[in-house]
Amino acid sequence: MRIIRQIRHIRPTRARRRFRTAAGLSGAAMLAVVCAAAVAPEAVVAPVSDGGKWRRLGGEASGANGPQETEKSEGAGGADEVEGAAAPPRRADAAPALPLPVPARSAAEALRGYADRLEQAEQLRVAAAKRWGVRKLPPRPPAPPEEKAELKTEPGHITGKGLPPVITRVPTEDKVVFLTIDDGAEKDPDLLRMMRELDIPYSSFLTDYVVRDDYGYFRAMRKDGNRIHNHTVSHKELPKLSYAEQRKEICDQQDNLEREIGERPRLFRPPYGAYDEDTLRAAAACGVEAVPLWAEEAFADRMEWGRADRKFHPGDIILTHFRGEDVWEGSMPDMIRLVLSTVAEQGFAIARLEDYL
C-alpha cells in the first residue's frame, strides 16, 4: 500500500514529459524500469542513449561520496547530459551510482505504449498471413534461453575429441522447431517479403557455386536478421574427397561468406548430410563449432518425416532447399505455407536456431 500511495502522489514533472517521448528504450530496459518502480519508485531510471551520452531526466547522480557535479547543456528540452559511452563517470573504488530517478507512473505509461506496439505488430502479422494465404500461423516463440545448452553428438553419429558435435535436434524442452534452408539455387524475392512480413526466423546454409552470381540476395536476407552458414564451395559428396580437399571445400566457403556476408559462420552442414571423420576434423580446423543435420524435410507439396510418429519433437531441425516450380510441385511460398500450417497444427513455434546453439 505504501508503494501505491507513493505512485499516486507523484506530481507531474518536466522529467516525466521528457521520458514519455524518449526514444531507443528497449523492451528489456523498459521492463527493468517498471520492475524497479515497484520496489523503489524514487530510484527508477531510464537509460536513454543519445549519441554516446546519457540524457539526464531529473535529479542527481550520486555515488559513495554524494552528488556528482556534471556539465549542464541547454540542448533540446534543456536536459542535462553526462559525457561518456555508457554511464555517468565515477571513481573506480566508489560504490555503484544510484540510477537517475523517473516517476514510476511515467514508466508504467511507457510500458503500456510498448505493449500497444507489440499488439499492433501482431495485428500486422495476422493481416500478412491472410495476404499470403497462410491457413494457420504458429504462435510467437518463447524467449530464448539465458544459457545455451551444451551440445553433444547424437547416438549413431561420429564423435571424438576436438570434433564438432553432430545433431538433428537442439536439446530443449521448449515447443519450438527450427527452419533451415540449403544451397541457395532459387532466389525468389517473394520468399524474402513473405518471411519479413510474417516475422518468421530461418537460417540458410549456402553453397558458393549457386549463390556467387547474387550474394546481394543473401545480404538482404542477413539484414532481415536471418543468419547465414556454410554448405561448402561446390556441393560435393565430401567423404569421396581427401582430407585436404574437404578442408578446402569448407575453409574456402568460410572465407567467401566472411567476405560477402560480413561474418564467419559457426555452423556447417555437409551436402547430402554425408560426412566422415575427416569432414569433422576439417570443419573444426576451419572454425566450425557444430554440425546441425535435420529431423524433417519440407517440400512445396509434402513433409518427409524422420520418425514413424510423423510428429515434431521439441528442438527438431527442419531442412528445406531454395527451389522453384521448375523442380518442385510449387514455389518457395507454397513450401512456407505448408511448413507454417503443419507446425501450427502440432502446437509448435518456429524459433531462431542461433538463439539456442
Polypeptide structure, described:
The chain has 357 residues and is of the alpha/beta class. Helix content is 34%, strand content 12%. The protein is built from ten helices and 14 strands. The protein has helices at 2-8, 14-21, 27-39, 104-131, 189-198, 208-211, 215-223, 243-260, 277-285, 332-345, and strands at 49-50, 53-55, 62-63, 66-67, 81-83, 166-167, 176-183, 203-206, 228-230, 291-292, 296-298, 303-305, 317-321, 349-350. The strands form four sheets. Strands 7, 8, 9, 11, 12, 13 and 14 form a seven-stranded mixed β-sheet that branches. Strands 1-2-5 form a three-stranded antiparallel β-sheet, with no helix packed on it. Strands 3-4 form a two-stranded antiparallel ribbon. α2 runs parallel beside α4, α3 (27-39) packs antiparallel against α4 and α8 packs parallel to α9 (277-285). The longest helix is centred in the first third of the chain and has 28 residues, at 104-131. The chain is globular and about 65 Å long. The two termini are 45 Å apart.
Q: Which SSEs are present, and which pair or pack?
A:
Layout: H1 2-8, H2 14-21, H3 27-39, E1 49-50, E2 53-55, E3 62-63, E4 66-67, E5 81-83, H4 104-131, E6 166-167, E7 176-183, H5 189-198, E8 203-206, H6 208-211, H7 215-223, E9 228-230, H8 243-260, H9 277-285, E10 291-292, E11 296-298, E12 303-305, E13 317-321, H10 332-345, E14 349-350
Parallel strand pairs: 6-10, 7-8, 7-13, 7-14, 8-9, 11-13
Antiparallel strand pairs: 1-2, 2-5, 3-4, 11-12
Helix pairs in contact: 2-4, 3-4, 8-9
